[in-house]
Amino acid sequence: MASNVDAADGETVILICIDSDGSSLDGDHEEIVISTAEVSQWDLTSLAHRPIIKIKANRQRLIQQSSYFHGLLCGSFSESCFDSISIHWDMESLLSMLRFISGFALDLTSENFVPLYEAALFFGVEKLLLKIWSISGSMVERMINMGYHAAIDFIPQVTDYLARNFIWMASRDSFHTVPFELLLSCVKHPCLTVDSEKHLCDAILLWLAANTNLSDLLSFTGDVRLDILTEIRTSLLSLPFAAGKRRCPFFSKFAERSVVAICSLSTSRSFNLADILGGGDCNQLRIRLTEYTKILDLSGCPQISLPLLLLSMLPSSSNLDQMLMKKLNQLSLKLEHHMDIPRIPWEIFPVLTFEAVQVVDVSNCPRLHLEAAIECFSKSFPSLTTLKAAYILNFRTMKLYQLLQRCPLLSDIDLTVDNTPVIPAKVSVISSFPAVTLQISTSSNDETCPDVPAFHFSRQLSNITKLILEGRTDIYDSDLKNIAECCPSLICINLNACTSITDSGISILVLKCVELHSIFACDTSFGHNCVLSLCRNISRIDAVAMKMADHTNSLAYKLQILHIGGCKSIDETSLLELISQTHGIRSLCLRETQLLDNCLYKFSGSSLEMLDVSDTKVSCQAVGHVVRGNPHLKCLIARGCRRLLQEENDILENSNVLSYNCPVLYYELGKFCNLEEISLGWGFSFFSLEALQPAIKMLRTFIVGLGGSLGEDGLRLVPTFCPRLETLILYFQVVSDSVVRNILATLKNLEVLALCYCFGEISSLSFQSSAPRLRKLKLERVSTHMTNDDLLTLTQNCMNLTELSLVGCRRLNSESQDTISNGWPGLISLHLEDCGEVTAKGVTSLMNCQALEDLLLRHNGLGMDRNFIIRAASRMPLLRKVAVDVCDAKDGDFDLPDFLDRNFLRIVKIARCNLKRRTLGSTKSGTCTTPVHVETLILTRDSKKLSRTVVKERL
């Protein structure tokens, strides 16, 4: 088999292999010629003693498998054009390596481990290195424990390799078997390469948990190995990660100090290391960057600022020059007071270059001046291809063009922000205040990122293929036009909830970017003009191609992803024309559109993997038509489709004998598909679940909404039918303690559980089982009798929650704040509504949940201070969304935050209610009132303006 492969691969090269051990030259000097095409016939024992061997090897195989031979045979070396090359190396290890390259199984022993490792390292055979380390964990431990002499010279090489590939090592199942001395050496190694400090911390904690006695963990004494935790640069951990580790038995003290340091750095108005470190080692504030770093992940780090970024890019030294520190502090103060800054003096900050860095993630880094940071990236990361900068508001879209100019290799940019709640098609606006323009300096001496008009850019400057602008209300038609000019190679654009752009603006982008195959435009003005642009023949200049019989050259025909959910401006006729041409589509979202059956019947594609038709008027028969033609469908979202409702009698009558064209959707899904996600409502029942059984064995997400009725028997079957579920969301279903206990006890992979407005009542008995993997929990109007003790039980069995929503738990009191903040210190989302007296004495302990990004407190007791929103924003550096109700304000109102201050807030929602007398029971003594929603004030900001809108909806 090897012979056939080598023959097919092409030309050969002669390797003249000369044993590096001079003593062997006294042996047999007869010339031996062998071939890698006959590797299975090699006698390694006899060949290993030969001083010189000529080997015929496949040139392309060597180039593909070895970086050494790739450089030698493809580069500028003279050997690249030779038919033979000489290699001086240990004969046995060289032959073993060549056998592996040629597809022969690896025979790894304690005797050949070191020589093989050295050969793989020198010749750059990555697959051999990975193979060695996948089976060698226990062997290394034995070598060290038995004191092999070879290990003395071997360990430094191992340490060097593992330090450079630490992320890979930590991902191996055998990681916990790595000897402590080796682990410590890797962590201390100057070439330690990790994506972020949290990855290093997680790896160390994982190793310690597997190798440390429980008593030592609890007492934090008695095991010197715990000292390895001091190697973690806790000031550089992400805030949600550090806050969540407050409950870790042997890391709690470090985590507490980490949170304090992070919050101190994020609120500091200067960059004075003497104050920050108290005279300590500045290396503790250096982001780990090595020549091998490929990914830099700083997401969720509010402490990251431009001076700190510069500090990490400067040459390492134990003590920084005082003048340099003064300059860093001056830079910090300038950024504090101005949006724009003067040119960064690179002669003062001689940053290093890290050629290997390809991906940078600075999402949720509110203190980082992104425009100035891009200057640093362009200097230090010349190979940067992916920039993730989600939830950063201070990046003006006009600077996108400068970003493309300064980082020409960029191909993937993510500038997502939270979607505005004021989606025109979804809310009824009562009044809208004039938008307030934010005071941003636009001085002409801005040399950092001068505004260069888009038409100055060469089309060759931009390699952007994927651009995510989701939620950005500061994107306008003119921006789309410029993007189309700058990014001719664009294949994926995400404009979801970009409410300031028009149908015409999107259509211009579609017309100019003819390589587009993925469009995300939900909740925008996507409409008739966009359909015309997608359906036109891209090989023609005229605009009448939409009516041509052959649509195979239209952009619609080549689309792979089209998400236009919530786009009300696209009429039925345009939708019909568009769907009839989307032949190659893989993912199609049409939720809340004017979608009817005739549109789906026109769909002729066979590659569909995701279909969202929720809240439309489609029927079982039309959806079934699509299902039958798309056997690779993995995701179906059809909640809110009333026409899917069928009589149970019809299903029962057809349950025994079904024809190929049976209109029962669920049997067709069960027959044709292997689903990973499904969301259904009207018409979905216990019998539907049984019909679906063959299709949901691999299901990961299961959502049942209004109109569906599984019953307790159906819910008991869910864990059996779907053992791999990660997300389970139930609306208006009948639940009980036994049902919930069964779900938590059997679904070991469950990460998201939502029980919303369900019938029945659950108690603390539901959460007696431990659910360590559960991350998101919603209990809305389903646990009205929950007490603080019940909540405490919940914190003990669901320890790792990051998102919690409780609605209607009316027996909770102010003490529950302590329970929540102590039990889940790493929460990033907290919604408490109609929860008794939680805020009757104000909001105190909840302020200790400093990693919160989304906070909703409504109808939980009249006791919230007037300055609550301002105080929360100052205490929680990552807080982006706040929702309150004036019913809870003890002074009758809330002070509005200054959005120009240092807070990260983007969306503030303040609802207002009237207390209305109930008609029933009004004759009884005393007043009997209930809050009735009146309106909601919504404040949203983007990089340019602050908007104030009053709507009827309770958002």
TrEMBL record:
One Pfam family named in its UniProt record: BACK
Q: What is this protein called?
A: BACK domain-containing protein
Coiled-coil features, chain-numbered ranges? none
User: Function of this protein?
Assistant: May act as a substrate-specific adapter of an E3 ubiquitin-protein ligase complex (CUL3-RBX1-BTB) which mediates the ubiquitination and subsequent proteasomal degradation of target proteins.
Q: Which SMART domains match?
A: LRR_CC
Q: Which InterPro entries match?
A: BACK, Leu-rich_rpt_Cys-con_subtyp, LRR_dom_sf, SKP1/BTB/POZ_sf
User: Which Gene3D superfamilies does the entry link to?
Assistant: 1.25.40.420, Potassium Channel Kv1.1, Chain A, Ribonuclease Inhibitor
Pathway named in the protein's UniProt entry: Protein modification; protein ubiquitination
Domain BACK stretches: 157-230
